[in-house]
Amino acid sequence: MKNLITFVLTFFFVYAKAQNIQIVKDDDLKANGKVMFFTTKDELISKMGKAEKWIETYPECGTYAEEAANKTPFYTYQRQGFTFLVYSKTAEFQKVDLKNNPKSFIHIGKWKISSKTTLNNLKKMFPIAYKNYTKEQNPAFIRLKFNAEWDDEIQIELKNHKVVAVYYWSPC
Question: Could you give the CA distance from residue 28 to residue 37 in angstroms, rounded to a whole number?
Fold first, then answer.
């Protein structure tokens, strides 16, 4: 009986928390409508093309302890305003600069986000995230979560009520 009560209380807590955040599925996110945000190095290069910049790096934050222990090299792949973190056979979206790359865009489910996307468009696309945005003291981002339990999020940056960039953010 105790386990059932714990389960029910946990379910209602997670459900209530999820009602105050905008949830998106990570497999609904696509760079230029072609590349999943979490993909393989080969898939990234085959669909986006050869990198304009390929820089050896090391992630400042995140959960890369196993890779670091194995001395796995990390790189940033940059093309058309997109930046992906690449290591082993994995590629992870980091950000896209839409302000300086007007032909670039991302899909989040059925929605296309580009430099032409306005705050009013985002209000219609993501009403819960918009509501949270209006509650912030100095709003700069529309925040989308993958899961009510995780801190990771997609941040859509706005300047003058227009989208200028999209970031994947994960806590340290």
Answer: 9
- Please check whether residue 100 is in contact with residue 109, taking contact to mean a CB–CB distance below 8 angstroms: no
- The pLDDT of 22-49, averaged and rounded, is 95
CA 84 to chain centre: 11
The runs of H, that is alpha helices, within 32-114 are 41-48, 65-69
How far is Cα 96 from Cα 103, in angstroms, rounded to an integer?
Answer: 11
Residues 6+ apart with CB under 8 A from 128: 19, 20, 21, 22
3: pLDDT strictly greater than 90: no
The pTM of this model reads: 0.84
The phi-psi region of residue 45 (left if phi > 0; otherwise alpha if psi is between -120 and 50; otherwise beta) is: alpha
Please report where in the chains the tokens 């790096």 appear, as a residue: 57
Per the DSSP assignment, residues forming a β-bridge with 23 are: 145
